[in-house]
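Give me structure tokens for this 205-residue protein.
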Amino acid sequence: MADSDDWRVTISVSDQAQTGQAQRSFSLRQVEEDIRRQVGRSIAVGADDRQIFLYAGTETAARDAERIARDVLARHGIAAESALHRWHPIEEQWENPDVALPQTEAERQAEHQRLEDTETAESVATGIAQWQVRVELGSHRQAVALARTLENEGRAVVRRWKFLLVGAGNEDQARELAGQIRREAPPGAAVIAEQAGVGWPFMQF
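Here you go.
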């Protein structure tokens, strides 16, 4: 069964001065009432300074939501452009609906490996980790000791009081590194592999 946010409609308001009005037109209550009355599906809504996002579980629901949203904007005299995208679970990004999703396990493995290779190449080229392992320890002393251990192994470590961040080139490397750190860290340490949100250093081994 598809997740509730597999499809996304992005509506870009043409005039930035109209954004406030557009956001009011697309209040969650108004949009959900329109969607529920016309297609009987729940649509999640988000917005930033110039765009409005509608999230749906199927292409049909997304296109229905897009049509309703454009009608609402038109009634308020607001010009806008819209685009439909589908979430690609392996690439982990929004793609054009024409991009085929992998159907077999071999295709999924090939897609995953391509993503890992791309992330690693970007990490190596920029010197910035695309993934990281975040470690929260029980004390500052534990953080210092574990940081020294990891640095002696050649890891790039950023230490912030009781927290450590260790760069990794891709998701597989991050999960493997997280497993290693769990074995070396004191009991009770929280170890999480995640995409890097900040430009932490990356060292290739």
